[in-house]
Design goal:
This protein is mainly alpha-helical. The chain has helices spanning about 5-30, 55-65, 75-80, 80-100, 110-115, 130-155, 165-180, 185, 190-195, 200-210, 215-220, 235-265, 290-295, 295-310, 320-345, 350-355; strands spanning about 35, 50, 275-280, 285. Strands 1-2 form a two-stranded antiparallel ribbon. A two-stranded antiparallel ribbon has the order 3-4. It is globular. It binds NADPH dihydro-nicotinamide-adenine-dinucleotide phosphate. NADPH dihydro-nicotinamide-adenine-dinucleotide phosphate binds next to helix 12, strand 4, helix 14 and helix 15.
């Protein structure tokens, strides 16, 4: 199916595990800064302590790849992608068994405990937080897949390469670099403070995030450049980049505003937007800036980023180019409803007041 030799196929299968080991070693060894997380129910009032060095690990990983220090060719990750997906599924099963068996069973069904996990926070290797490390693995491996795909494409087509594919890969690198630059903000997100550590989250970080998110590259890096009139390049490439950047500003802005608000509720966001809130005297919800435009502008921003990425490839009628955008839209529409139920249960009448002030779920004025 893939034209790989048996040795290459085995090496491809083991590639995610090798990357996992290298990134874990870097995460444990490299210096990190220590911060407090967000208090949540399994920790009572005391926030968990974290050591963060995702950016350093990511930059080292890029350096190792670009210098070819593992001896693998630059396009290796693209070449072995299907075997790597199989290997990543196997690795997720092993990591799930390791983590779930490490924790006490509870009174939920066994299936639920394996899928959703038992513990919220697991520290198995030194002070490394397993969830935060899984996100380092997923993010760094996704960016490596993006640059490896670009290397493969360039190797095939040289000067006739699709510039849009390089733009698409650069967007992934931007997306991941931004994640690591704001790694601390991640501590205030749902997955970290609310989700347990089971197969769902583990396979999400080991298989879905690094190996299925770049699906557009799996389907298009082997194709020649699309036949687009060069006079339209500015509209095509400039338009895609603009949509992506607007989406990024919305998503990053919304996440950052909420993060600042949770840390210092009275402070003006960026020194400009005074927080408007609804409050019941004990709890407070933000309803100004991004959080006054819709109840999940951050999700809407990410959907726009995915749209910019799909358009950048220039293969407008190729289904591969759209899979991630379609997936993410469906994912966020359903995730918003899950978060809505959680917030309605947590905040009660206060959430009803917030909904009255901010009636739209994702897209201001529309939905
Ligand atoms: P949010 O960051 O939107 O967090 C939701 C929580 O924020 C709520 O449960 C509530 O928790 C709090 N909250 C909601 N509204 C308000 C308000 N108005 N004022 C104050 N607090 C509020 O969602 P996620 O954690 O799901 O996502 C975080 C980021 O990660 C987003 O940018 C998202 O796009 C991104 N993401 C990306 C994914 C991808 O696959 N690309 C997947 C998942 C997330 P509480 O009040 O208890 O603090």
């Amino acid at each position: 199916m893939s034209g790989l030799t048996t040795t290459q196929a085995i090496a491809g299968f083991l590639t995610p595990t090798a990357i996992f080991v290298i990134l874990l070693a870097l995460h444990v060894v490299l210096p990190a800064y220590r911060v407090e997380g967000y208090a949540h129910r399994n920790l009572g009032a005391a926030p968990a302590q974290y050591r963060l060095n995702g950016l350093a690990v990511f930059l080292c990983a890029l350096l190792i790849w670009s210098l070819g220090l593992t001896t693998a060719p630059l396009d290796w990750l693209w070449v072995v992608k299907w075997h790597a997906i199989a290997g990543a599924v196997a690795l997720s099963v092993v990591v799930t068994v390791w983590i779930v068996l490490h924790e006490q069973s509870d009174d939920r069904s066994q299936l639920v405990q394996w899928l959703e996990g038992r513990a919220y926070n697991v520290r198995l290797v030194g002070h490394a937080d397993t969830k935060m490390f899984l996100y380092i693995f997923g993010g760094a491996y996704l960016a490596l897949n993006a640059v490896s795909s670009a290397a493969y494409h360039f190797g095939q087509y040289g000067a006739a390469s699709n510039v849009g594919l390089f733009l698409h890969s650069a967007m992934w690198v931007w997306f991941i670099t931004d994640y690591f630059l704001f790694e601390r903000v991640q501590l205030f997100t749902f997955d970290i403070f609310e989700e347990r550590l089971g197969f769902k989250l583990i396979a999400g970080c080991i298989v879905v995030y690094p190996l299925l998110y770049p699906v557009a590259l799996w389907g298009t890096a082997g194709l020649p450049a699309p036949d687009i009139d060069p006079s339209l390049n500015v509209v095509w490439l400039g338009g895609s980049a603009a949509i992506f950047l607007i989406g990024w500003m919305i998503s990053r802005g919304a996440n950052f505003q909420k993060y600042m608000f949770k840390r210092a509720p009275d402070r003006a966001f960026l020194g400009l937007i005074q927080p408007a809130t609804v409050t019941d005297g004990k709890r407070t919800l933000l309803c100004s800036g991004f959080w006054g435009a819709s109840r999940h502008m951050n999700y809407f921003g990410e959907i726009l980023e995915a749209l910019g990425m799909a358009l950048a490839l220039g293969h407008f009628t190729n289904f591969w180019a759209w899979i991630y955008f379609i997936y993410l839209t469906v994912f966020f529409v359903s995730r918003e409803r899950i978060d809505e139920r959680r917030c309605a249960a947590k905040y009660g009448d206060l959430w009803r007041q917030y909904r009255e002030r901010v009636p739209h779920r994702l897209v201001p004025g529309l939905y």
